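Sat 14:20. Reprocessing the chain from the morning session after the first attempt stalled halfway. Input below, unchanged.
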Amino acid sequence: MVAVPKAVAAPPPAKGDLNVIVIGHRWWWEFDYPDLGIKTADELRIPAGVTVQITLQSTDVIHSFWVPQLSGKTDVIPGQTNHTWLNVTNIGEYAGSCSEFCGVEHANMRFNVIVQSAADFQTWVSGQQLPAPEPQTDLEKSGAQIVTQRVCSSCHSVNGTSAKGQVGPNLTHLYSRSIFAGGIAPLTDANVQAWVMNSAAMKPASLMASVHVSPQDVDKVMAYLKTLK
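Finished this time. C-alpha cells:
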C-alpha cells in the first residue's frame, strides 16, 4: 500500500507575505495583487523565498488551480472563496493549468508561474505600477482611441485611460507578458494581430467579442498595443 502524503497546512498570514487574488474566467486566469495595485493575466510573477497567500475566486463556473511542480489542486468555485499558498525557492518558470473540466476550452486555460529574484520582482512591480504610456505617433493615437474609447473598452481596462472594462484581461502592460489568450500562444506581434482580427480562429470558443476590425484599424490598434509594455 502506497502512503499518501498529508497536505501541508497554509502558514498563517505574516508581514512580508505577498497577497494575490487569483480569478478564474472562461478560459483564462487573472492575477490581482491588491496591495500593489497590479492586475495582470496569464502570468503569476512571485519573488523567490516569499510566502504567497493566494485567494481563489471564479466569475463563472468551477475551475481548479494547479501548478504540478509546486502545489496540489485547489478548487475555484463561483460564490465561494478558497485559499492556497506558495513558497518557491528556485528561480524559474512553472506551467500551471485548470484541472477541473470547465467547458470546451478547458484544455486551453493555462498560465505560468514565474519565480524571480527579489530585485527582478521589484523591477517588474515598478513597471506594472506605471500607467499606460501616452501614444506618440498619429498611428498610435488613432489606435488608442479605438482601444480605449470604442468596443475594446467595454471589456478591457487600460490604466490611466477611459477604458475601464472588467470582463477581459487588463491590457495596461500587455507587452510585458510572454504569453496571452489564456496562455495558449506566445505573445508576438503576429499572434496578437491574428487574435485581434479573428480570435475564434485561434481559440474557437473564446468569449472575446467579434470586433470586426478593418485592416486599416488593425494597423492602428497594433501600433498602440505595442506601446503597452
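The radius of gyration is 18 Å.
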